[in-house]
């Protein structure tokens, strides 16, 4: 056991009376207090304020003034440099941010360091570079010329305005960075509304952004629940929402956005991601792949696999070896350096996953491993493997967003491709085989925003990410994000 002691700056930060972060400063709020619970022990570690209309108005006014003023007056290179300085500051405060994140989310300290901080820094640096690579095109118009006049045309990509970034609880640093860095790189300003379960790290990062030289108002943070998010979306001063969260909330967000004032909406939603192993993959390789696809951060990863398809000739051996591998995983305090598997992120989610366990049994599925919670304080459950005999079984089709891997045996590869696609969702999928030709033949037939071959879950800032079908609208990262954060302006010149 190598339990990490909280740094004094973490203890001091948690003890503060948190409100919002508006116009370069932490601000108090009269809003109702929301307790922040450490899911490893069920104890309150801090509280935030639920935003009131006055807080929302103040944040939007600040964001608009920066959008039309200080931030508009920076060059693309200056914008990139601020993001680079923030990346350096986040690394300097790596352990502090990781400890706050683990305390509020139950993420293991190793994942908080390596993914929440280090990977978020990689994304920040990518977006910093993108700030200087936003371009339009030149066009030769075919307009008629009566007196020898000629025409030239070009397009500009211009920032849409104040962008509301709404963030879920599973990766509260990294997803917030995706939102505000996309906005800032394109010349927009950003208001982040974090999840009410995990709102603390972004409040600290906003302070670091000011220290990095970000003008007041370019990044504001509003704390609170779903209503705060809705109020931001429908506010007349905001122009776009970039939402990451569940499908039902995403549909509500899209509706609010459209009805209010045609607010632009990018929706990064959940799903039920498929993982298929061709028969040439042996059981040991498959087990390594299943652990990577299904159990990182207790399965609370939007891109994680939940529907696993294994050839009938391989499934018994694979599930046997998977059970042995899961039995040796170290479950425990996420602040312990050696812990591999921490608690679920909050009580409501813990209750939901326990209901899935009960459902698995009541529907007569085989619980191969786990399927139960652990005694004691905190929201711990065992990593779980379920086998179903019916491809329509609810557990194979409903998102659990937890460490619940559901398996089905297929008989031939055409059936496998149908199983991949027989879902309303399409965020990610992975196909595992030693035969690259077969993989490349199947990839175009798999309906998902990202298809991995022989890997799962890892995202790269240079590669666009987003959902097909009911898993969302729009793409983040790569160069694809630029379209979603800018308006295309056409300029035609007669000469
Ligand atoms: P959620 O949909 O419950 O909440 C997401 C955010 O929306 C929170 O900040 C919440 O306060 C806010 N919200 C709630 N109601 C709102 C409303 N009416 N208007 C505006 N905002 C509102 O999701 P969650 O439980 O925090 O996160 C888990 C879900 O997120 C899973 O379904 C998962 O698949 C999905 N997810 C998707 C991605 C992706 O990139 N596609 C990434 C991570 C998580």
List keywords for this structure.
single chain; alpha/beta; Aldehyde Dehydrogenase, Chain A, domain 1; Aldehyde Dehydrogenase, Chain A, domain 2; seven-stranded mixed sheet; six-stranded mixed sheet; 39% helix; 21% strand; binds nicotinamide-adenine-dinucleotide; NAD-dependent phenylacetaldehyde dehydrogenase; oxidoreductase activity, acting on the aldehyde or oxo group of donors, NAD or NADP as acceptor; Ald_DH/histidinol_DH; Aldehyde_DH_dom; oxidoreductase
Describe this protein's structure:
With 495 residues, the protein is an alpha/beta fold. The protein folds into two domains: 284 residues, Aldehyde Dehydrogenase, Chain A, domain 1; 189 residues, Aldehyde Dehydrogenase, Chain A, domain 2. The protein contains 16 helices and 22 strands. The chain has a seven-stranded mixed β-sheet, with helices on both faces. Strands 9-8-7-10-11-21 form a six-stranded mixed β-sheet, with helices on both faces. Helix 3 runs antiparallel to helix 5, helix 3 crosses helix 7 and helix 4 runs antiparallel to helix 7. It starts with 7 loop residues before the first helix and ends with a strand. The mean pLDDT is 97. It binds nicotinamide-adenine-dinucleotide (NAD). Nicotinamide-adenine-dinucleotide (NAD) binds next to helix 8 and helix 9.
In short:
This protein is of the alpha/beta class and 495 residues long. It has helices at residues 8-15, 53-68, 76-92, 94-105, 109-130, 174-185, 200-211, 226-234, 247-261, 283-294, 312-327, 347-362, 394-397, 413-421, 436-442, 480-485, and strands spanning 20-22, 25-27, 33-38, 43-49, 138-139, 151-159, 162-166, 189-193, 219-222, 240-244, 264-268, 273-277, 305-311, 366-369, 384-387, 404-410, 425-426, 428-432, 450-453, 468-469, 472-473, 486-494. The chain has 16 helices and 22 strands.
């Amino acid at each position: 056991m190598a339990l990490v002691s909280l740094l004094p700056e973490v203890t001091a930060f948690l003890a503060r009376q948190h409100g919002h972060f508006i116009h370069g400063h932490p601000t108090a709020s009269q809003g109702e207090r929301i307790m922040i619970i450490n899911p490893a022990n069920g104890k309150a570690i801090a509280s935030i304020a639920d935003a009131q209309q006055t807080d929302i108005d103040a944040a939007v006014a600040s964001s608009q003034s920066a959008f039309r003023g200080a931030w508009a007056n920076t060059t693309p290179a200056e914008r990139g440099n601020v993001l680079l300085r923030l990346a350096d500051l986040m690394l300097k405060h790596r352990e502090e941010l990781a400890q706050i994140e683990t305390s509020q989310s139950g993420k293991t300290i190793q994942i908080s360091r390596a993914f929440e901080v280090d990977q978020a820094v990689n994304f920040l640096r990518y977006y910093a570079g993108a700030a200087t690579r936003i371009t339009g095109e030149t066009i030769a118009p075919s307009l008629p010329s009566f007196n020898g006049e000629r025409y030239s045309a070009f397009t500009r990509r211009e920032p849409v305005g104040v962008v509301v970034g709404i963030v879920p609880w599973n990766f509260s640093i990294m997803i917030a960075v995706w939102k505000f860095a996309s906005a800032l790189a394109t010349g927009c300003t950003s208001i982040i509304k974090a999840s009410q379960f995990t709102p603390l790290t972004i409040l600290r990062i906003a302070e670091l952004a000011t220290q990095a030289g970000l003008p007041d108002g370019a990044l504001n943070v509003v704390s609170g629940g779903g209503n705060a998010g809705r109020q931001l979306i429908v506010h007349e001063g905001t122009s776009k929402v970039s939402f990451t969260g569940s499908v039902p909330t995403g549909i509500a967000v899209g509706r609010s956005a459209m009805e209010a004032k045609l607010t632009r909406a990018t929706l990064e939603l959940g799903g039920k991601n498929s993982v298929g192993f061709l028969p040439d993959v042996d059981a040991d390789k498959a087990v390594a792949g299943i652990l990577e696809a299904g159990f990182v951060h207790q399965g609370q990863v939007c891109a994680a696999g939940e529907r696993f398809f294994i050839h009938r000739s391989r499934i018994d051996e694979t599930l046997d070896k998977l059970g042995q591998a899961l039995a040796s995983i170290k479950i425990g305090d996420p602040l312990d350096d050696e812990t591999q598997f921490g608690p679920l992120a909050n009580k409501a989610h813990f209750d939901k996953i326990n209901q899935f366990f009960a459902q698995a049994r009541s529907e007569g599925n085989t619980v191969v491993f786990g399927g139960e919670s652990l005694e004691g304080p905190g929201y711990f459950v065992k990593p779980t493997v379920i086998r179903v005999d019916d491809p329509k079984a609810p557990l194979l089709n409903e998102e659990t967003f937890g460490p619940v891997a559901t398996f089905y045996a297929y008989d031939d590869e055409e059936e496998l491709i149908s199983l991949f696609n027989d879902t309303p969702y399409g965020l990610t999928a992975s196909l595992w085989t030693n035969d690259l030709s077969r993989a490349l033949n199947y990839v175009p037939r798999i309906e998902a925003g990202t298809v991995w071959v022989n890997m799962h879950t890892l995202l790269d800032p240079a590669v666009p990410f987003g959902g097909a079908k009911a898993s969302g609208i729009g793409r983040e990262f790569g160069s694809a994000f630029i379209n979603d954060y800018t308006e295309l302006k056409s300029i035609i010149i007669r000469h």
